[in-house]
Amino acid sequence: MKILIILLACLTCSTGALAQGIATAIQTTMRILATQPDGSVSVGSGVVLPGERVATACHVVEGATEIKVSYKYVASPATLARQDRARDLCVLAAPGLAAPAAKLARSTDLKTGDRLLAFSGAYGNDVRLMIGEVSAVHPMDGGAVIETSVPFVVGDSGGGLFNNEGELIGLLAFISSTPGEKRYAIPVEWLDADIEAAKKMPFWKGDADRLPAFLRP
């Protein structure tokens, strides 16, 4: 399987701590299948939380008429349990989900240059492992939006971003349209943030004058 090839290549050049971090985090990676009204299926990633829940980016499941989470070749139905569209952070309820939950850490403890691990479950039965660093941290709403060199692409949205110990610190979210295609993850602290229901658009979309300062051209 693809993950074994990537994992073995990484282990030959990694410390024991990194190897353990990878082994821990990979077990929490889910594939998200979101059926749209026209019958098409959008695919993204998610991360298992305690209580048979899965965190993902809201734009992965936006407009879906049916949602399923897939773990170890088994797809199970899921429903929206929490929807924070302004921060692009959604939580799915997946009753009966038999998967280990991620351990959480604080995004605000990160510093530039810290190593990061990211996982995407959007590739069928394979899990994509990506390694990068913290490029910058941008404090926002009690957490820190993480700018990273992890080379994720649009289909990886909702995948987990972990520290070197395999603790979840964010979710892969978006690639900026500014020159350089900078990549960002949203922080786990937002899982407990108050939801501003009136705001329907993710903070990273919209007119330039409404964007956070770090996203303005």
Describe the main β-sheet briefly. Answer: 6 strands, antiparallel, barrel
Strand order of the main beta sheet, please?
1-2-3-6-5-4
Give the fraction of residues assigned to helices.
Answer: 10-25%
- Under CATH at level 1, the class stands as Mainly Beta
Whole-angstrom Rg? 16 Å
The coarse silhouette is globular
Mean pLDDT: 89
| CATH architecture classification | Beta Barrel
Could you name the ranges where pLDDT drops below 50 across 5 or more consecutive residues?
A: 1-13
Helical stretch tally: 3
CATH-derived topology: Thrombin, subunit H
Strand content: 35-45%
Topology diagram in text:
Blueprint: H1 2-11, H2 16-26, E1 29-35, E2 41-49, E3 53-57, H3 58-61, E4 66-71, E5 74-84, E6 89-93, E7 115-123, E8 126-140, E9 143-148, E10 160-162, E11 168-175, E12 183-187
Antiparallel strand pairs: 1-2, 1-4, 2-3, 3-6, 4-5, 5-6, 7-8, 7-10, 8-9, 9-12, 10-11, 11-12
Features:
single chain, 217 residues, mainly beta, Thrombin, subunit H, six-stranded antiparallel barrel, six-stranded antiparallel beta barrel, 12 strands, globular, disordered N terminus
Short description:
The chain has 217 residues and is mostly beta strands. It has three helices and twelve strands.
Explain the overall architecture.
By secondary structure, the chain is mostly beta strands. It has a single domain, classed as Thrombin, subunit H (Beta Barrel), CATH 2.40.10. The chain is built from three helices and twelve strands. It has a six-stranded antiparallel beta barrel with strand order 1-2-3-6-5-4. The chain has a six-stranded antiparallel β-barrel with strand order 7-8-9-12-11-10. It is globular. The model is unreliable at 1-13 (pLDDT under 50).
